Amino acid sequence: MDRREALQLLMGGAALQLASPNLFAKLRTARMLLDTQAVPRTLNSHQNATAAAIAEMIIPKTDTVGASDIGATQFIDLILTEWYTQEERDRFLSGLADVDGRAQALFAEKFVDCSTDQRGKILTALGEQMTRDAQAARESAPGYRGSPQKPDKNFYYMIRNLTLTAYFTSEAGAEKQSVFQVSPRSLEGKQV
């Protein structure tokens, strides 16, 4: 899988379930590389902990597996290391630092030391900024065939999509969300 294919899949985020079986298989193959990655190569220990805390807020463990259960931060580090450009990596790492800066300014603590409610307030603010960035992108230029532009330079958009991709390409996440049940064969003979 080349960098362009990987990034196209990552930017699809929640639409990953609708990706072609071939592209989905390539991302699942990329997950197998995680077994050979002993330690993070891009994220330092604090950045890794911050990314893990954010990912767990995005996909918390409930009656299904959460982001930490499926190795979301290992997947994020793999993508940062193997497929992101230096500019994209820098933007992501700056976003992690900004999250800590917001936590320090609001609660006098690092993000990882904040309560769940405090983390939620920070991520809500980031989500609102992502929405504003998406709106600005839509207003500046229409997307392909009129589809909305993605705020792909927005940190929260990046980490949210990486987390969702990590989840839906994991075996546990895919099985729990029935991703593997969607196929043209499953629709044969059924009226849609």
Outline of this structure?
The chain has one domain (3-177).
Can you give keywords for this protein?
0% strand, globular, 192 residues, 8 helices, disordered C terminus, mainly alpha
Can you walk me through this structure?
By secondary structure, this protein is mostly helical. It has one domain. Helices cover 60% and strands 0% of the residues. Helix 4 packs across helix 7 and helix 5 packs across helix 6. The protein is globular and about 40 Å long. The two termini are 33 Å apart. The N terminus and C terminus are likely disordered.
Topology (elements, then pairings):
Layout: H1 3-12, H2 21-32, H3 45-58, H4 72-82, H5 86-107, H6 116-140, H7 155-169, H8 171-176
Helix pairs in contact: 1-7, 3-4, 3-7, 4-7, 5-6, 5-7
Written as H for each helix and E for each strand, in order along the chain, the element string is HHHHHHHH
In this structure, how is the largest beta sheet organized? none
- Percent helix range: 55-70%
- Number of E-type strands: 0
Low-confidence stretches: 1-11, 13-18, 179-192
SS-derived structural category = mainly alpha
Cα separation of the termini: 33 Å
Strand content: under 5%
Tally of individual domains: 1
Rg estimate, integer Å? 17 Å
Shape: globular
* Number of continuous helical runs: 8
Q: What's the oligomerization state?
A: single chain
Mean pLDDT: 77
